[in-house]
Amino acid sequence: xxxxxxxxxxxxxxxxxxxxxxxxxxxxxxxxxxxxxxxxxxxxxxxxxxxxxxxxxxxxxxxxxxxxxxxxxxxxxxxxxxxxxxxxxxxxxxxxxxxxxxxxxxxxxxxxxxxxxxxxxxxxxxxxxxxxxxxxxxxxxxxxxxxxxxxxxxxxxxxxxxxxxxxxxxxxxxxxxxxxxxxxxxxxxxxxx
Length: 193
Fold this sequence. Notes:
Helix content: 55-70%
Radius of gyration: 18 Å
Order of helices and strands: HHHHHHHH
């Protein structure tokens, strides 16, 4: 690695590591130590290919997702722990207003399976289109859709208090009497079987 590439990598890590760590924390179900390990492993893979990569952040995120998928496939899955807060970022004006929502959301995400959690993080936290999520996870778009649908339904079942907290959050959509709010803006109807 030449001096210019090394400087570029160091700047990238300094500028983007906190955002990438937040994503890793969500992918690991709130386990900050596992998230740090996940991010460090992704950055190690990226540094070797730094000069050949066009979009560094997208590449690091793809490595994060794929490494997390590899962790699902371990023969003996690890027990995941939860933490009560996300890594501190630039604090919003009213940080305490969203604290309860973050705590409940992290707890609810930790109760989902790793695959369900990853699909929700990629679709709604990272705001990736279904096709990119499918590509990152190595599955079909239909699988992403069905997993997202089932994950949201399970999230609503596991943590019904999220509905009330989201409705009172400062950036929540207004309550206009329509169907309940969902992260993607689509209201899913339960299908009778």
